[in-house]
Structures are given as C-alpha cells and as structure tokens.
Amino acid sequence: MILSNSSSRRKQKPQAFWLFFPAASLLAALAVPLSVWAVWSGTGWPAGLLGAGHGHELIFGFALALVAGYTLGPQPAAVLYPLFGLWLAARLGGILLPHNLIAQFLGPAFALLLARHVVPRFQAAKKWRNKMVGPLILLICLLSVMFWLASALAIPQKSWLPGPFPVMHSAITGLLLLMTFMGGRLIAPAVAGTLEKKGIPLEARVQPRIEGTLIVVLGASIFLMAFPEANLITAGLLITAAGLIALRTLRWKLWLCPERPDLLVLAVGYFWLAIGALATGLALLNSKPPAPALHLITIGALGTLSTSVMLRLAWQRSHRKPPPAGEVFPIAALLAIAAISRFIAGASPFGAPMLLWLSASSWTLAYLWVTGRLLLLAKHTQNRRK
C-alpha cells in the first residue's frame, strides 16, 4: 500500500496554476511601478516598459500566463517547465532587451506554443457558444504576433494596417470577451449551488441568449477596435455589451449570498467589465482617447477577476474551502482604488503624478499580497501531501 501511494505521487503531473499564477502575480506587481518609474525618473529604464511596452507585458505576458495557469491543468513536466521557461525568458527579454531580435521573438513564440497546448482542449465542445473559447484564445495569442510585427515594422498611426496600440486595444477587447464568458461560467453554477442550499431556486443561470449576444457583439468589437474609422460602430457595440453584462450580473442575485465573499468579489469584478465597456464605448463615441477607459477593464475587471480566481482555486486545492472575506475584500478595494485613480488621471497620466502613483501602488500592493498568499498556499498543499 505504501509503495502504491509513493508510486502514484511520482506519476502525478504538476499543476500549471501553481507555477504560472505566482509568477504572473509577481510580474503584475513589478511591471506597473517599474513602467511608471521608467518615465517619471527620466532614466528610461527598464526600456521594455516604456510606451506600449507596459501594456504588452500585462496583456501578452501577465494575462496569457493567467490563461496558461487556468486552462492547462496538470501537464507532464517535459511540457510544463519548458513552456514556463519560455514565458519567463520572454518576459526578461522583453523588459530588459526590447530591441534584441531574439528577445522580440520569444513572446510570440510563447503565445503560439501556449495556443498549441490549450486550444485543442476546447474542441470537444458541442454548443457553438462553448466552441468559441478555443478560437478566442488562439486569436489573443495571434494578436501577440501581430503586435510584434506592427512594432517591428514601425507601422505609422494613420496607416491602413493597425499599429501596436490598436492591436493592443483589440487584445483588451478580446480579454473582455474571454472574461465575460469564463467569468459567467464560473459565477453562475457557484451562485446556483449556494442558493439551492438555502432553498432558493435560481432561474437565470448561464443565460444563453444574453451570452450568445455578448459573444457576437464583443466578437465584432475585437475586429473593429483595431480600426479608428469604425469607432462609432464599436462604441455602439461596447455600450450594448455593457448593458447586457450588467443585466446578467443583476439576474444572478448575488446579494442573496452574503456568506460567500469570494462570489461577491467575483461579481464586483464582473460588474467592472460592464463599467469598462461602457466607459470605452462613451470615449469612442465622443472621439476621446480610449486608454483611460480601457484601464477600467485591465485594472478593475482583469485585476479583480484574476486575483479572485487565483486565490479561489488555490484555497480550494489547499484548504478545500473558498478564501475568507479578510483576504478578498481588501484586495478588491485596492484594485478599485487603482482603477478609479488611473481613470481620473486621464489620457496624460504623468500630468497627474499623485494619481498615477496611487494607482500603481494600490495595484502593486494587491498583487504582492496575492503572490505571497499563493506561495504559502502552495507550500501548505505540498506539506499536506507528504
């Protein structure tokens, strides 16, 4: 029996999230203040976080690491560790040696290799709404390649081909759709299960009609976001999506789950999707730069949902229970401060350094806390298995 147990442990494949989640959190914690420092200090270091660089690292570095950790599951060491090594090399190369040709190639190489391992996992889905996850992840990975090409070719802003910033904006819209879909598939059954224990039936669960409409509306927005000529159409689509996301969130009746702080914070993150989509749509409608509004998606929504999902999964695996209120509420509050202060700082954030540093500091504190907690929970899980 002892021999059998030790043999099963040796054959156990490592979980991707224990590797990618802490690394992604640490990258998020360091990249934002370093990007502000690179400009504010006048040193221009690290060069890879100047201009579009910090957005590239948070979308194609941080967010793709989250995708890897959440979707890969258990993998053979021969697959997982080289993939993680490529991700790490791409981050170091992109931040420290952004003009090196080999370093520039590492990021797209990781994105394509990740797509190779992740996308086939969703091919068995039968409903068209479920089948879109694989192609969407593939599209976001391909946008990493497009960003690299747009940067390498130095495509001018008024060219008919999208430059680095429009490609990045399309990628953010892709993440908006991915978070809308996967967040809904995470929240709906958890809320339904919690309410059923109280004898309260939840009729509005996945809400397939709303979900299907969101897929179409936001799917079109991903393409149109790359072309400023279509801003009015994109604005209408994003404002429509904001209303649908808000309606879907309200129909889950999360106020009936006060004993589940993890679900309440997930709902806050989901509502940030609606706020970010609405603000971005209004900015495009009024011919204003979309960057401040897009930060409501990347900081408010992505920040809140990513920290919630990482902690929730880690707590379930290590303690078989959701994270406590004292852990998730302060993180959600810090990320709300970060999102709002960055939005108020506007399109020229270095003209409001106090707001910019407040945003960067709040974001960093949240992710440093998450990094530390993930490492401690991983150690607890490892000790329990011995």
From TrEMBL:
InterPro entries: NnrS. Keywords: Membrane, Transmembrane, Transmembrane helix. The keyword Transmembrane helix applies. The chain crosses the membrane at residues 55-72, 79-96, 102-120, 132-155, 167-188, 209-227, 233-251, 263-285, 291-315, 327-348, 354-376. It holds the Pfam family NnrS. This is NnrS family protein. It comes from Marinobacter aromaticivorans.
